[in-house]
Amino acid sequence: MRNRSSRILILTAAALAYAFLLGPLLIVVGASFDGGSQPFFRFPPEEVSLRWYLSIPAKYWSALGLSFMVAAAAAALATLLGSLAALGIARSSVPGKALLETYFRFPLQVPFVVTGIVFLQFYHILADASGIDLVGTTWGLLVAHTFFCIPYSVGAVGSVITHDLEKAENAARIAGATEWRVLRRITIPALKPGLFSGFFFAFITSFGDVPVSVFLAGSGTTPLPVEIFQTLQFDYDPTVLSISTLVVLISTAFVIAMQRVAGLDIVLPGSRR
Amino acid sequence: MMRVRRAYDGALALALAVSVLLFIVPQFFFVRQSFFESLGMGMMGDELTLANYRTILTDSFYIAVFLRTIAISAVAALVALIIAYPTAYWLSRMNSPALRWLIILLLVSSFVSIVVKVLGLTMLLGSQGPFVAFLQFVTFGLWNGSLLHNELAVAIGLVQYSLPLLIMLLFGVVQTIPKSLEEAASVHGASDWRLVRRILLPLSLNGIVTAGLIAFNMNMGAFTSAVLLGGGNVLTVPVVIQQKIILEVDYPVASALSVLLTVAVMAINLVVVAVRRGGFAGARQRRKIA
Prior knowledge:
The complex is a heterodimer of chains A (about 270) and B (about 290).
Chain A: H1 4-32, H2 51-54, H3 58-91, H4 97-109, H5 112-130, H6 138-158, H7 163-174, H8 179-207, H9 213-216, H10 224-233, H11 239-261
Helix pairs in contact in A: 1-11, 3-4, 3-6, 3-8, 3-10, 4-6, 6-8, 7-8
Chain B: H1 2-33, E1 36-40, E2 43-48, H2 51-58, H3 60-92, H4 98-111, H5 114-125, H6 130-138, H7 151-175, H8 179-187, H9 192-220, H10 224-230, H11 237-246, H12 251-289
Antiparallel strand pairs in B: 1-2
Helix pairs in contact in B: 3-7, 3-9, 4-7, 5-7, 5-10, 7-9, 7-10, 8-9, 9-12, 11-12
């Protein structure tokens, strides 16, 4: 864009977008250091204190741990299954590849609330039939989260399986590499960006999920976002600000660590200049 | 080679087996349940019936709920697109190390759970927040409404929910448009507006429609922001579904509502894709004639 006014217009939109996205987070972080007990942000704060950090209830800490565990396990399982699916779709002799791709994208077409109820009801039926009740268990959460995590890695891994990869594999085979070695040295390294970004988006979605978990959580197995959701809906408590601030900080640390280890390009191609 | 192909067949078979267990089996029982009459208290009749669907589709309350959900979702998706596109353009044409930090901020924002953002929005829009204070100031205290617990608040929450993902998706889209095309057009005297209309928009239309539909689909199923920012005043389909389950323990009607919500989402997606294809073919036709 060469025109000054159109540049200003674009910059304004971008500034607005960032202010809108970061504003609510900054307010939460700022208010968490205010020792007063009102549920709103004042500037300047009444008194700067770590009062609400020191009194974070134990249920938030265990919820945070649970969220982390479920997200990591669901994302890992989904990455495994998703890459098997993506490789299978690209390379098996089965016809109807487009149909299979659509099929594996299905969980993201179903509204999340619906997913929550579908699994709630399925677990009830399962309990009636077998006596194993998954409602309110970590396993129940894990299964449902894996369901909606699978499409991310099918898509991400599918996008890095290219014709060139097949050529490289064949070259290695001709040079005498065993199939195992081809897989380990050629295929998996080439799939790495897809594995990483699929895992990343699956993890994010699971870690922040409310609509699915809210139906499946039980006492002691409530993930942090649901715990916060219930606090906001029923009984406000200022410690929700401090635990939320910790979530913001952990997320920031996670993103920066990922940038250092794997590079941003893996999550968002073209972001490295 | 044969052996390798068979190994990939096996991989697909395994993934399919697990996914059938996760995708198809639970959905089957769920859809099936919507065809049984609810007897209240979580009990169900044992005859197949369309009664739940008839109830929903003939009740003006449910129709209004569906229309409200579609309207809020569409408006929020459109607003998010209008903010996201210039932002994505700005990022993808940026030639500075600041880009890395801007992307990190974007990822952090998409990482943080929507509940935390809703908490922030509640404080910003709440009665003690800066926006209410501003509105009261400019109206000399005559305005004493609330910015929370209405459709606007829910729509703002939905934009907050889908915006980071939309910017990331459109960032990928704009990147595929070579900068040299814009330069060439500028050199030949095209105005910025013409550049947007004749180069950027046509070349990114596919991506814009896809991203817009993704945002719309997210909004249609959005639950957290609808419950918390709507505060019980804004009844969207996800909110009503939750009430049916939690308060009324009416699984059959909740199932029927869910089936209708999913069908509505898929149907709207299909219509948009079909209209766009048709529109494209039509435009091409017209150009040929001209």
